[in-house]
Design brief:
CATH class of the largest domain: Mainly Alpha
Low-confidence stretches: 169-174, 222-246
Shape: elongated
CATH architecture of the largest domain: Up-down Bundle
Distance between the termini: 31 Å
Number of strands: 3
Strand content: under 5%
Helix content: 55-70%
Number of helices: 10
Strand order of the largest sheet: 1-3-2
Length: 248
């Protein structure tokens, strides 16, 4: 579908750039724009009824998110996302997020734990209602709330960057029963003050999602079975069913 053939989004109050960014990001992640497709500023501005400046700024943000890239002429296009990109992102998450969790456990107070508990209850409700969008929002809030407690702004910036691109959206169309159970197991370890168990469960939580997503890519590495990959082992707490696929 050509850029000019797509329906115009509704632009309301809020910064125009922020709305354009969210609209384009949603469309890119939903596959409305194809890999390699050019994002022409003038055409996008005309379609959205804005000047080119907020469109340009939105495209810059999408480039930072890893969803767009520039060609030799400086024009933006939708970036290809392959299994190597997936593995890089999730391997970094498996290294950084357990580290952030360990740091956060020194600072989590009763109020923070109470809020995480409320998020878990809300996620359970979203699973029961099969509300994927709601679950994804709550899932992100749970993780970011936990990592923010680390008090490490640079670490948080890196982690948020890893969460901004395509793979986490792909993870969203997996079942969520296992994921919710893993969150409960992580939270139980937090309440017990067991940093080793909590960080190990989190590592496995992200690693399982990597394994499931990797299997969706064609080719020898993409077709690798779960049994061949140690990161796909089920959580050690025994709180979830290992036969239920899910995302992190």
């Amino acid at each position: 579908m050509a850029t000019h053939d797509r329906p115009s989004p509704v632009i309301t109050r809020d910064t125009v750039e922020a709305q354009i960014y969210r609209s384009l990001r949603q469309d890119i992640l939903a596959g409305v724009y194809q890999e390699g497709e050019r994002m022409v500023q003038r055409t996008l501005a005309e379609r959205m009824g804005t000047s080119r400046i907020p469109v340009r700024d939105a495209l810059k943000r999408l480039e930072v998110d890893g969803l767009l890239a520039k060609d030799d002429n400086g024009s933006y296009y939708c970036k290809r996302f392959g299994v190597d990109d997936l593995e890089e992102v999730y391997t970094l998450r498996m290294l950084l997020e357990p580290h952030a969790l360990r740091l956060a456990m020194r600072r989590l107070d009763a109020d923070a734990l109470g809020y995480l508990r409320e998020l878990l209850a809300a996620m359970d409700q979203a699973v029961a209602a099969k509300d994927q969008d709601r679950y994804l929002d709550l899932n992100r809030e749970f993780h970011m709330t936990l990592y923010e407690a680390s008090g490490q702004p640079r670490l948080m910036q890196i982690i948020k960057g890893l969460w901004s691109g395509r793979p986490l959206f792909v993870a969203g169309d997996l079942g969520h029963t296992r994921s919710a159970g893993e969150h409960h197991a992580i939270f139980a370890a937090l309440e017990e003050g067991d940093a080793d168990l909590a960080s190990r469960l989190l590592h496995d939580h992200v690693g399982y999602a990597l394994n499931v997503l990797r299997a969706r890519f064609p080719g020898p590495r993409g077709d690798r079975e779960r049994a061949d990959d140690p990161v796909a082992e089920p959580p050690r707490a025994g709180a979830t069913d290992p036969n239920r696929g899910d995302g992190a």
